[in-house]
């Protein structure tokens, strides 16, 4: 591979072709530290033209490419395997915001831009980029689009696909497709944009995107409601949508054990409820009229929910600091899980109407098969996305329980399928679930996906072993 590496160094500069173990190590282990792969180089181009040059060399030398943004994924989508035959193509140097069009409500950014920086640039221009994730301080736009990220505001604004109008993509042959069009309507053939979004880097490399912006809300109000069950949460969702319509921005479900874990490992995050409740909902309104209107909407909603015995108790934030503190509780659930020990994660999507039945039946199936397991159930109830995670029984080690992961996954995923759901809502498939989708997708669907992959990437150099095998 000396000739290939020399050509890469000539194309982008020797200092951006990393081969020493101490230089590449940070790019080879996934965020959860469950797997470490191997690559004979990490290559860091600075612009679209340099990305294209590297891809042309990979095409010429038949070198597999693993594209990587912030490396915050949870399904091993941006980590190479252990074969040491691939390069990691880090896109973090493609971090320019190219343009903001406040009249068209669009922003053109490069794929290595950190999500939080994009949010701030939009705010500085008096606009909102609403995609919001726990990892927004380190994840990148390219990764968000490649996995079709969701987050906490999908209920109102949609996921990454709905927030993107156009793309710039380097094909597996090193050619450039410039689809950076800020159009809401463009009915001129196949929608290539949607083909690349959610493809996890298996069809090409997203190098830039035109993102959709929205006006900044005049006011945001947050409340934490305590409820008896997921069914009560669904009743609250229906009431909130009827009362608040598009002002309802976030609607997050959290089981009691989620808050127990946060309190155990982050005791400074104290809640003032008089007693523990089975479920909690964190809801947020974003109002386009005024603070007074937002306050009235939220107060009337919570009042009606209490009167109808949907909600048992509620904390309504009266300041931005209190609102941030409530959201901190939600965002610390994964951190509290990690502090408690390893757990088996599921990122599932279901028809909203069946979520209560799914939780009840799956909890029962798991307790029957693994007595004492602890359910860490939380997620974006408003769009049907649950993070249905399973922690080991208190008397068992997490290592022993993790050995049962395949069996646990089968129970959960089979039940998801029986309810008409999906085994991946927003995290993607990566290398972790590529065998699982063969169980739940039809042969026709898999055949169509493989035909697209073969047509666009016949050498199979784009993120091989991810999404499809």
Describe it for me?
The chain has about 475 residues and is α+β, with helices and mostly antiparallel strands. The chain folds into four domains: about 1-90, Uridine Diphospho-n-acetylenolpyruvylglucosamine Reductase, domain 2, CATH 3.30.43; about 95-215, Uridine Diphospho-n-acetylenolpyruvylglucosamine Reductase, domain 3; about 220-335, Alpha-Beta Plaits (2-Layer Sandwich), CATH 3.30.70; about 340-435, Alpha-Beta Plaits. About 35% of the residues lie in helices and about 20% in strands. The protein is built from 17 helices and 19 strands. Strands 12, 13, 14, 15, 16, 17, 18 and 19 form an eight-stranded antiparallel β-sheet that branches. Strands 5-6-10-8-9 form a five-stranded antiparallel β-sheet. A hairpin with a 4-residue loop joins strand 18 (about 375-380) and strand 19 (about 385-390). It is globular, with a radius of gyration of 23 Å. The mean pLDDT is about 95.
Keywords for this structure?
469 residues, Uridine Diphospho-n-acetylenolpyruvylglucosamine Reductase, domain 3, Alpha-Beta Plaits, 8-stranded antiparallel sheet, 17 helices, 20% strand, globular
Task: Reconstruct the topology from this structure.
Layout: H1 2-12, E1 17-18, H2 21-24, E2 41-43, H3 48-61, E3 65-68, E4 87-90, E5 97-101, E6 106-110, H4 115-124, E7 127-128, H5 141-146, H6 154-157, E8 164-170, E9 176-179, H7 192-196, E10 205-212, E11 214-215, E12 219-227, H8 230-244, E13 248-255, H9 256-265, E14 279-287, H10 291-307, E15 313-316, H11 320-331, H12 333-340, E16 343-344, E17 347-349, H13 355-369, E18 374-380, E19 385-391, H14 398-402, H15 405-418, H16 436-440, H17 443-456
Parallel strand pairs: 2-4, 3-4
Antiparallel strand pairs: 1-2, 5-6, 6-10, 7-11, 8-9, 8-10, 12-14, 12-15, 13-14, 13-18, 16-19, 17-19, 18-19
Helix pairs in contact: 1-3, 8-10, 9-12, 13-15
């Amino acid at each position: 591979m000396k000739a290939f590496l020399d050509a890469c160094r000539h194309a982008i500069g020797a200092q951006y072709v990393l081969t020493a173990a101490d230089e590449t190590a940070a790019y080879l282990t996934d965020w959860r530290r469950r797997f470490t792969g191997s690559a004979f180089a990490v290559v860091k181009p600075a612009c679209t033209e340099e990305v294209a040059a590297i891809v042309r060399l990979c095409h010429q030398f038949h070198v597999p490419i693993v594209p990587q943004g912030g490396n915050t994924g949870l399904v091993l989508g941006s980590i190479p395997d252990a074969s040491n035959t691939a390069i990691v193509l880090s896109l973090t140097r493609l971090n320019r915001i190219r343009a903001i069009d406040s009249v068209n409500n669009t922003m053109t950014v490069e794929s290595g831009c950190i999500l939080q920086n994009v949010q701030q640039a939009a705010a500085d221009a008096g606009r909102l980029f609403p995609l919001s994730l726990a990892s927004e301080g380190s994840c990148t736009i390219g990764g968000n689009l490649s996995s079709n990220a969701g987050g906490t505001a999908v209920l109102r604004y949609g996921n990454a696909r709905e927030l993107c109008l156009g793309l710039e993509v380097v094909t597996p042959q090193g050619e450039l497709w410039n689809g950076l069009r800020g159009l809401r309507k463009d009915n001129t053939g196949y929608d290539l944009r949607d083909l690349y979004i959610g493809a996890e880097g298996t069809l090409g490399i997203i190098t830039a995107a035109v993102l959709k912006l929205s006006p900044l809300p005049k006011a945001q109000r947050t409340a934490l409601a305590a409820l008896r069950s997921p069914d009560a949460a669904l009743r609250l969702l229906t009431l909130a949508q009827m009362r608040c319509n598009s002002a309802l921005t976030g609607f997050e479900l959290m089981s009691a054990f989620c808050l127990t874990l946060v309190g155990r490992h982050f005791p400074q995050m104290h809640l003032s409820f008089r007693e523990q409740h089975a479920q909690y909902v964190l809801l947020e309104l974003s109002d386009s009229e005024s603070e007074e209107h937002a306050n009235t909407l939220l107060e009337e909603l919570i009042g009606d929910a209490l009167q109808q015995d949907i909600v048992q108790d509620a904390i309504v934030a009266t300041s931005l600091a209190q609102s941030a503190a409530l959201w901190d509780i939600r965002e610390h659930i994964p951190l509290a899980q990690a502090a408690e020990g390893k757990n088996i994660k599921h990122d599932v999507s279901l028809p909203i109407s069946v979520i209560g039945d799914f939780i009840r039946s799956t909890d029962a199936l798991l307790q029957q098969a693994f007595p004492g397991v602890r359910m860490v159930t939380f997620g974006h109830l408003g769009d049907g996305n649950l993070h249905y995670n399973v922690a080991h029984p208190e008397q068992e080690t997490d290592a022993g329980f993790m050995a049962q992961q395949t069996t646990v996954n089968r129970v959960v995923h089979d039940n998801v399928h029986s309810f008409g759901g999906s085994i991946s809502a927003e995290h993607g498939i990566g290398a972790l679930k590529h065998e699982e989708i063969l169980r739940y997708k039809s042969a026709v669907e898999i055949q169509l996906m493989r035909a697209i992959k073969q047509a666009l990437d016949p050498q199979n150099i784009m993120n091989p072993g991810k999404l499809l095998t």
